[in-house]
Amino acid sequence: MGKLRVYIVSYDISDSKRLYRVHKTMKGFGEPVHYSVFRCNLSDKDKIELIAILSEIIKHDEDRIMIIDLGFLDGYVDRRISLIGVHPEEDNNESAIIV
Amino acid sequence: MRKISEFEMPDLIPARMLNEFTYCPRLCYIEWVEGEFEDNADTVDGRFQHRRVDQSQGVVPNPEEVADFTARSVDISAHEIGIVCRLDLIEGKDGHVIPVEYKRGYVPKIEGGAYESDKVQLCAQGLALKENGYECNEGLIYFVKSKQKVQITFNELLVNRTKQLINNLRLMIASEKIPSPLVESSRCVRCSLAGICLPDEINFLKNPENRNEEIPQVRKFLPPRDDQIPLYVTGYGQTVRKKGERLEVWSNRDKTGEVKIRELSQISLYGSADITSPAFTEILQRNIPINYFSYGGWFYGFSQGNSHKNVELRIKQFAFAEDKKRSLKLAQMFVYGKILNSRTILRRNDGEVSDEILKSLKKLASDAKSSNSLQTLLGIEGGAAQIYFSRFNNLLKSDDSWYSFENRNRRPPKDPVNTVLSYLYGVMVKEFFVTLNTTGFDPYLGFYHQPRYGRPALALDMMEEFRSIIADSVTFTLFNNGELSERDFISRGLGVTLTPTGKKAVLRGYERRISTEVKHPLFGYKVSYRRIFEVQARLLSRVLHGEIDVYPPFLTR
After folding, report:
1. Where Mg(2+) is bound, by residue (chain A) (predicted)?
2. Residues of A engaging B, defined by a Cβ cutoff of 8 Å
């Protein structure tokens, strides 16, 4: 709980079944920006949960996951990211979803 | 009615609870007696670091046959000293057994290399082993992060201390009184239940002499705002479906929205909005409430997974409601808060309001506090509402406009302003319903509003002090900012209703308002209104527990 930080999570998974499971898990934590790259806004608790869940899925001697911390969500995150070419959809971070 | 003293005293105390009790008796009470729990990063990490020792493995031989062995995650109970525990790891060596307790962090830099709470927990495990016939005079605490073991000898001093604490814990449960919070303790900083316990807030309210201080010494333990978000499904013919780790909302063949399930705080479904079984069960398992409204915004009820465990609070609530005198005292504070807050809204937003009106509202508020019956109180509230709503049109910039406000009317509301007010009151009832439910109350039994079939009386009680500062304020802001237009309303016979886009605009305005962070007038820290609702509910529970004498309504400045 508390303030959210922005993370870039990327992964190389050698087995397609595990790759699918990792991808499915990641969809619950963040937005896909590229193949095997997600942007996630996480609390400290979320981050530990993500690591715990992924640690159970992957094979630690075959797969790998990198987590990059971009700092607090309300900081200068977007200045640290430059985009060239097609831009991914905006993560609009609304306080409620109304449909 | 069943009295609390009829609660059965448990025979066996979990060694883990002894650890909590040693750390903070109040923590132990909240977690064990009241059945509250909340995860934070530390507790989640703790479970993660524990995952290997939590897998049961190995067999413990009989006491006579102890040779070299190891076993993981072993349950053991000892009736004489009254302890039940799960041993992370037991090692057997030369006829001795050694319990090993896993702790997630680093070896603490204190004398002896371990906290008292951990030592006592381990010692209780050792005593339980002894009672079961094993030779056991020492144990180990393994610190996962520093990968170091600290040896603990069960000497007379530690054994006596452990037995004394077990006894104190029993006395605490028998007393049926929640222990006071720690005072300015650094232990609260990492405690996952601090947001439930509210240590500094309670200490502050318990000592009235502190109240006049300019800057109260209240540390903020509760998160300033909720990271979870609500989902509202208002449109016609929408279906909520589960897709992996997300929920998707579909209208015919179009996806109209999606949300990560773990980000959800609650779901509100309006009218014919539908939810599939897989989505429904997933939501219940994650303890996310689903609220149902009519198409027009009338709150019907809600679904939730396993209900709240806090039976103790419900028993106190029912006993309190039986007591007319104490109920009236609470009701007075709800109305007092309501009148003063509506006065503040006028003072801030009605440029032409006369001193006379402000004065009479203030008088009515203080009359409310000293009223001698519920009937008088109802009369006072009615009088104040009449004065307040007589000025409501002045809050609207409606000079040459399509809307104006004459008087409050409902069922059905006859003009756009009343329509929006009614819709928002419905949303607010839901908000308090959910908050009260997650705090452990029964939302249907109130102290001011009398119980009537299907009416969430306590939610209505708690809402009183917030009506003007949330619903009314959102209403005139939406009209004044031009966020609502004539096209957002439809006249139907006697009444006026909102169109789908109008409803969305109203809900957006509402969510924007309650996510706003404001300075808490008593405690001095900044939190969102949504959090304030929760704090008020917890403060109310502390009044029912007898910890605070008078319920402090949230008074905006």
Report:
1. 12
2. 1-2, 4, 24-25, 27-30, 43-49, 51-52, 55, 94-99
